[in-house]
């Protein structure tokens, strides 16, 4: 009896210490293509969609370690989540499946040829009451589908092996181009910071058959639409290069599921861009590289699963009621009216009228660590690539995937460098997102502090 008791204690200690063991993995997918016509998001479009070229999907990967810790990663062909949508999903996942907030990760491809998602980018459209009703109906249907696909992935849990590797794709370019006057415009800056890394997580059955691949890239999913007056007339649903890459990988591996997530792509664009032919080119380039990595010698990933989550408050620069009274006056100048700026100013003045002007933005920070072999850092907002590069420098021993556009996309998150330089990612984006903006100069250090706390909680950096 003493021997049995001693063995039981030893096994319990081994589990508590996180002895590597076998994963279980489950996969599921659900079609999230809106019925057309429907309002599309990402550009200041004036009409609804007129057709579908490529179906949009939400794909879920569930993982469970021997200690019973479960996580679900959902990769969606969407521009980004509004927190009202994602919060509903998190509550549903907790209520129906017992998943804690840190154990569910919602990611996006950031396609600009997909639907408006609830109130995300609400200030970029002139919606009628009927338009708003349709948009909210789709958001409700979407939350139900996402909760459902999470459950389906958990229902298919089966023994699995995980491995990780990295590739590289070269079509992303920094888009912050300095003009002759010193101003920053959206263009092509071949000398600006980029990260062409393509992290790849491979999920196989014990016999080696590919079940799923989860991969990412730091590049706006904007090969089509919004480049010129002609391209702005692109009104068909499509997953862009990310959708093409997923489709091509699934063609190459029948029965397997390919999941793309955008990394920190706030200031990164595909180059060249402007056509469906380039969508196929960039998508196939990415798929070919991921497929090469899948066939290479990868690093095995062990258990346990550790997760952490927090919401960090990012301060906006100081503003007063006069700030937006002046803005409204400027926006209503008949010589150069700006209805979007005027609407933002009224939103901010309404906050002052109600006694709670917007001073901060909540940014979700999530960390998932699989054994000591692979760590995911997931950040809300349209995070610029500076963060991805800095996090890699500050955690040199970690095998990292640094995700942007995760869980809640409330606005762009500039680095201190981008904030000081100005331009769209620092300032004008706040109008479309209905935020006061710009951020205070503490934004980068505040966000990095939250990242370090989350990584410490999952045992990274030891």
Primary descriptors:
462 residues, alpha/beta, 2 domains, 9-stranded mixed β-sheet, 4-stranded mixed β-sheet, 20 strands, 26% strand, disordered N terminus
What report would you give on this structure?
The protein has 462 residues and is α/β, with parallel strands linked by helices. It has two domains: 21-308 and 364-409, no CATH class; 320-353, no CATH class. 33% of the residues lie in helices and 26% in strands. The protein contains eleven helices and 20 strands. It has helices at 2-17, 83-97, 129-155, 240-252, 276-294, 321-331, 339-353, 385-394, 416-421, 429-433, 443-457, and strands spanning 23-31, 51-52, 57-64, 70-76, 104-108, 158-168, 172-178, 184-189, 197-204, 210-217, 236-237, 257-262, 268-270, 299-301, 305-315, 360-370, 374-379, 382-383, 400-403, 412-413. Strands 1, 3, 4, 5, 6, 9, 10, 12 and 14 form a nine-stranded mixed sheet that branches. A four-stranded mixed sheet has the order 15-16-17-19, with helices on one face. Helix 2 packs parallel to helix 3 (129-155), helix 4 crosses helix 5 and helix 6 runs antiparallel to helix 7 (339-353). The two termini are 38 Å apart.
């Amino acid at each position: 009896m003493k021997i049995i008791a001693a063995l039981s204690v030893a096994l319990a200690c081994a589990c508590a210490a996180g002895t590597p063991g076998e994963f279980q993995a489950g996969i599921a997918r659900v079609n999230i293509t809106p019925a057309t016509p429907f309002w599309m998001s990402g550009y200041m479009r004036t009409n609804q969609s007129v057709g579908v070229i490529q179906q949009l999907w939400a794909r879920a990967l569930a993982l469970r370690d021997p200690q019973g810790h479960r996580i679900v990663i959902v990769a969606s062909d969407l521009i980004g989540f509004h927190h009202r949508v994602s919060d509903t999903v998190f509550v549903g996942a907790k209520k129906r499946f017992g998943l804690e907030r840190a154990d569910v990760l919602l990611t996006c491809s950031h396609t600009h040829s997909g639907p408006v998602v609830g109130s995300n980018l609400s200030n970029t459209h002139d919606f009628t009451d009927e338009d708003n009703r349709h948009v909210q109906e789709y958001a409700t249907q979407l939350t139900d589908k996402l909760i459902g696909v999470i459950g389906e992935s958990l229902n298919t849990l089966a023994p699995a092996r995980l491995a990780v590797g990295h590739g590289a794709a070269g079509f992303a370019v920094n888009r912050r181009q300095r003009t002759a006057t010193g101003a920053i415009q959206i263009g092509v800056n071949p000398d600006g910071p980029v990260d062409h890394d393509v992290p790849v997580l491979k999920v196989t059955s014990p016999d080696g058959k590919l079940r799923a691949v989860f991969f990412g890239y730091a590049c706006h999913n904007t090969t089509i639409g919004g480049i010129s007056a002609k391209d702005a007339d692109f009104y068909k649903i499509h997953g862009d290069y990310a959708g093409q890459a997923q489709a091509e990988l699934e063609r190459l591996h029948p029965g397997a599921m390919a999941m793309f997530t955008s990394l920190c792509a706030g200031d990164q664009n595909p180059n060249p861009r402007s056509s469906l032919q380039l969508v196929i080119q960039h998508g196939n380039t990415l798929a070919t590289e991921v497929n090469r990595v899948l066939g290479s010698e990868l690093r095995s990933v062990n258990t346990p699963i550790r997760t952490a989550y927090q919401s960090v408050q990012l301060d906006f620069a100081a503003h007063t009621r006069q700030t937006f009274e002046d803005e409204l006056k400027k926006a209503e100048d008949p010589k150069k009216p700006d209805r979007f700026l005027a609407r933002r100013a009224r939103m901010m003045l309404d906050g002052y009228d109600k006694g709670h002007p917007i001073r901060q933005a909540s940014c979700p920070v999530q960390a998932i660590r699989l054994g000591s072999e692979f760590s995911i850092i997931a950040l809300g907002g349209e995070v610029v690539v500076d963060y991805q590069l800095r996090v890699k420098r500050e955690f040199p021993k970690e095998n990292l995937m640094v995700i942007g556009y995760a869980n809640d996309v409330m606005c762009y998150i500039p680095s201190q460098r981008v904030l000081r330089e100005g331009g769209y990612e620092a300032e004008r984006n706040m109008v479309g997102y209905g935020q006061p903006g710009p951020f205070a100069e503490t934004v980068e250090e505040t966000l990095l502090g939250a990242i370090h706390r989350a990584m410490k909680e999952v045992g990274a950096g030891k």
